[in-house]
């Protein structure tokens, strides 16, 4: 039985080094210091999420349906994974609903434009 690759020490939580590889067929052993992929830092649930995301070709609405979670939850999981992989997550500012309603009341935008702006804000 194979176990998932540990990336952090269970005692002190520091990063572990991969120092030994062995062939399961001929038992050849190679010892050195090896680098793990950034993806090895992800847990099983996060890897499942990434697989689903790729299977859905990055379509967040499809991921929503496949996993039975809300759009904001999908975005949150993506942000968490992006952060774990070492990249900055740039949060988009929320929609100012009062400003949109004010523009609509003044006649500066149409009802259709207001609806579009509000929906875009929900999708972020």
From TrEMBL:
DUF2089 domain sequence ranges: 9-39, 42-87
Protein name: DUF2089 domain-containing protein
Organism, as annotated: Domibacillus mangrovi
